[in-house]
Amino acid sequence: MPTPTIMIIHNPKAVAQYATLLDKTGSKVHAVTSFEEANELLSFLHPDLILLAAQMEEGDGRLYCQQIRATLTHPRPVLVLLHSSEDVNERISSFRYGADDVLGENIDRSELAIRVLAHLRRRQEELCNPLTQMPGPIMIRRMLEQVLVQDRPWAALSIDLNNLRVYNETYGDLAGDQLIKALGAVCMSSVGENDFAGHIEADDFFIITSPERRLHVAEMIDRQFNDMSRRFYPPEVSERGYLISTGRGGIRRRVPLISIAIGIVSSTSRRYQSYVDVLTESRDNRYLAKQEAHCVWVEDTEAKPQVHREHSSRSTILVVEPDGAMACLLQEILSLEGYSVEVTASANDALDKARDLHPDLILLESNLADRRMDGWGLCRTIKETEEFSQCWVVMVTSNPDQSLALESGADLYMPKPFEMPSLLSELSLLLRSRQRR
Question: Which domain holds residue 365?
């Protein structure tokens, strides 16, 4: 956890005594003797608690509490006012001005330290993520700011889930929250005593560890999450190995089950100027991990994968369509879109053409005239052949059984009749992502 920060504002005679006392709480203590000094410090310091005197030579501490409440944005520090008066009305007035607690100047020093620790504990609880109770974004920022100014080397991991949106659409947000809580528990169990784990938002987690432990932590998170994530699916879905996502117009696609993506950065590979640089770089690496097939993490010490790469040649599409008129229409429109298109109506002929052409995508109707093999069989054969491992298969069919299409291995099911712009859009998305596979 980040070290709490306390600011003390008091008269010169007392400020050193309070600073010595509160320094023993393990907090970082900054002591000043005027409101002007305090304002200068607050311009760059974000204290968790301010302990200030009600009576200062330059003015009223209650008014300064009011000023802090009006000028500092959330989360503002806890304001503890030390008041010499025993008058109840005076103390009540201090609360009305904005103090969070009012203590007597003659309070026992041990009690003061305990009260300060109680306020700091409560503040840390408020800054935790409400779903997982892990340190939230503000505490993550402070932890990063602390490690950036230390001489000790560090590494950071940015972690989230692949395909959470489809999981939530299928099983509901409450089920998704349970999955996020499980990931939080995995992160907490994977860090060591000197590590830090926090929860930014949704399924976005962050870990700070040492450079020599970074890959060990990533491996532990991946292994533990994979071991337990299958329990969040019905047995038949877990065995099948994918979910079915439903889009507009009845389009169905296979979506892989939930998995982990991790981006790793380290102070040993480059110098970071701010916590924003660390968060940005680690997230960029995480996005690269998402775009690479079978890639769990990407770190800044490795050669980064090139994504969104444009092909120098035209993509090739093989259309397997028994309806002559539809085959001609598809060939003409796809050619106008810039694709190289071949057409056939036979399953066996489609296999021969596929071996010669090595198409990027096969557009396939299930109801073929070939007696020896229908569209489902052709799809299974293509998907089981290593030679065609990089080829997308899209079932564009009048058969209403989308489950059969996806179980046969199709990457996308699109029922007839369909709108041509929708087909072109889906094909473009698949072909642009081909280099990621």
Answer: 316-436
Name beta bridge partners: 255: 243
- What are φ and ψ of residue 311, in 5° steps? -80, 140
- CA distances in angstroms from 181 to 73, 134, 202, 264, 376, listed in the order given: 29, 10, 10, 22, 40
| Mean pLDDT score across all residues of the chain | 90
Task: Answer yes or no: is 304 within a domain.
Answer: no
In this structure, the answer to whether residues 118 and 95 fall within a common structural domain is: yes
Among 96, 126, 156, identify where a domain stops. Answer: 126
Reported as a single tens digit per residue, the pLDDT across 63-84 is: 999 999 999 877 899 999 999 8
CATH number at residue 176: 3.30.70.270
Torsion of CA 70, 76, 80, 81, to 10 degrees: -20
Judge whether 194 lies within some domain.
yes
Q: Quick one: pLDDT band at residue 313, thresholds 50, 70, 90? A: low
Residue 21 in any domain: the answer is: yes
pLDDT tens string 146-169: 999 988 999 999 999 999 999 999
Last residue of a domain, one of 126, 151, 177: 126
The number of domains in the chain is 3
What does 398-416 look like in DSSP terms, one character per residue?
A: S---HHHHHHTT-SEEEES
Residue 291, number of CB atoms within 10 A of its CB: 16
90 and 171, same domain (yes or no) = no
Can you tell me the mean pLDDT for 89-105?
92
d(CA 215, CA 157): 9
Edge-to-edge strand order for the sheet containing 5-9?
A: 28-32, 5-9, 49-53, 78-83, 101-104
CB atoms within 10 A of CB 332: 11
Give the CA distances from residue 11 to residues 26, 32, 34, 68, 140, in Å, rounded to whole numbers and listed in that order. Answer: 23, 8, 8, 19, 34
Distance CA 58, CA 36 (A): 9
Q: Does residue 294 share a domain with residue 180?
A: yes
Contact 335, 376 (CB under 8 A): no
Same domain, 290 and 336: no
CA-based Rg of the chain, rounded to a whole angstrom?
Answer: 31
Task: Tell whether 247 is covered by a domain.
Answer: no
With contact defined as beta carbons under 8 Å apart, do 187 and 197 qualify? yes
